[in-house]
Amino acid sequence: GMAEFTSGILKYDAMAGNGPRLAGVGAPGAELVPGILAGDSRNGRATSFKLAFEPGSLPGSGVGVSGHFGQVRGYAAVSTHLQVARIRQDIYAAELYYIGDKPEFLAEVYRFQDKGLSGAVVGPSHGATAYYIQLSYGFGKNGAWRPYLRQEALSRRDDDALFSVLGFKPYHSWIAGVK
Q1: Which end of the chain is more exposed for a tag (fewer CB within 10 A), N or C?
Q2: d(CA 77, CA 55)
């Protein structure tokens, strides 16, 4: 939803539903399947929210925060019904953006807190952080050509309950392109 004020627009969303499931634990190529695709397979439930404010004094800009809280249940590669892990995951995020006809600035940061609750990944809570910052400038009619420069990174501990199972490695990269 949204609420308009003299100073700008407040946008808000909330969700409650199925949590994601982790498929293929113990095999190469384990993957996280979103709750909407996993169906109601008795996975843990999840809740999330998002708040964003777009000031009227700078159209196209905004700042926001969001969170996602739930459990991820992991199932063995040999059977889609054999639960081998249960992970509590909390995700906190913040965003800052300006989307204009020519210049564009996008930035998001995510903080993941993963705690193995049962099965193959029992252990203390660990955090991971991911972010990106992207700058672009539009050329041509309505900014049809938009070269961009993006920096992104993921940092995590080697024993993180979820990222280690998925095989995500820490990284830092620069990306340039045209969209």
Answers
A1: N
A2: 48
Handedness of CA 133, 138, 144, 146 (dihedral sign): negative
The alpha carbons of the chain give a radius of gyration, in whole angstroms, of: 19
Query: How many CA within 13 A on the CB side of residue 163?
Result: 22
State the residue for tokens 């539009």: 138
Q: Are 69 and 45 in contact (CB under 8 A)?
A: no
**Contact yes or no for 71/21 (Cβ under 8 A):** no
Residue type for 86, please? Answer: R
Asked if 31 and 166 touch (Cβ cutoff 8 Å), the reply is: yes
In the block, residue with structure tokens 């050329």: 139
Nearest to 164 by CA among 135, 123, 111, 110: 123
pLDDT tens, the chain, 179 aa long: 999 999 999 999 999 887 777 777 766 677 777 665 555 555 567 899 999 999 999 999 999 999 999 888 777 765 667 777 778 889 999 999 999 888 999 999 999 988 877 766 656 677 889 999 999 999 988 778 999 999 999 998 777 767 777 777 889 999 999 98
DSSP H helical ranges for 50-97: none
Exposure string for 96-130, b = 16+ CB within 10 A, e = fewer = ebeeeeeebebbbebebbbbbbebebeeeebebeb
